[in-house]
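Summary for the lay section of the report: proteins are chains of building blocks that fold into shapes. Here we show the chain for Porin and then a coded description of the shape we predicted for it.
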Amino acid sequence: MKHGRIAVSIAAALCSASAFAQSSVTLYGVMDTGVEYVSHANAAGDAVVRMPGITGEVPSRWGMRGVEDLGAALKAVFVLESGFNVRAGDSGQGGRLFGRQAFVGLEGPWGTLSFGRQYTMTYWAMLDADILGPDIYGIGALDAFIPNGRSDNTIAYKGKFYGVTVGGSYSFGRDSTGTGNSPGQGTCFGPVPGDASQCREWSAMLKYDGTYFGVATAYDEQHGGMNARANFFDGVAPFAIASSGDKDARLQANGYVNVMGVKIGGGWIGRRVASDAADGSVRSNLFYLGAQYFVTPAVAIDGEGYRVIVQQHDTRATLASLRATYFLSKRTAVYGNVAYLWNSANARFSVSAGGGGTTPAAGIGQLGAIVGVRHSF
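The coded shape description reads as follows.
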């Protein structure tokens, strides 16, 4: 009888635990593409009409997110997110299966601690102030790392307390698969024996969000390593940051306000690459200012202006972008976007963050226009 009572007690405890721990998995995604026109798409001045890769209004992706209630206000969480190009059906992020995000962690009142491939604080700090976000004619045209700030082998923490969000990340090796984590940054492999600093990356963020305004600042530092390179996307060839003592760092400050139905956001990103290579130290400053207004609940108009200056390269560019979005439903929208980029005499920035074959001759501007459709599921 004694053993019978013990067995019944254990069975009851297991049933109670099973009923207590609730879990869910959500499948989600976005498909976004369009038809784009870009003037002066090459040095000869030829134009191109195409379906762009990578992004239209937002990058296409599909993913799974899960949560399990562990009790005592503690949850287990995970995200697996894959990027792809609608134009050809191929995977993004260098062909990775889950190139956008792949992490597991614990979440509680104290915040979220996560492990895996995930965004650095550069991405989270800009989420509200950058009005156009990862748009094809957005900030990614002038610095492709900004909307793609991710790292492998990463421990990250993020917590929000009474409107204040603090966060940090640390990567033991920011690109373990060798597919080029940061666009144009070359390959910097995972942890390297004998050199604890090679390919490391860390970031930190402090952010405040109120009812009518918000401000944020973040710092992101990448260490150099084997095959790592620094690209300023201005037509000057990327240069090596091969030593673990080399650094590619970005400091930013931004903010936004909501006034009479209009959201206004802007900020600054200062970048410094310090290298032992012949190219030495290169600095850039990137400024942006944008606004968004919903004409009706179904029609949004937004636009943003950008200015980048790369001091040591003597290159500068100004980008102006205007977008209109019509929401056919909660899941489906059509949009039109037009932008123009002015290059300085030595610069070869491209108006389109859609990638591939749209680099003008030095000093030549570009016009970009796209009409597209976006569907969420």
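Put simply, here is one thing we learned. The chain has one domain: 22-376.
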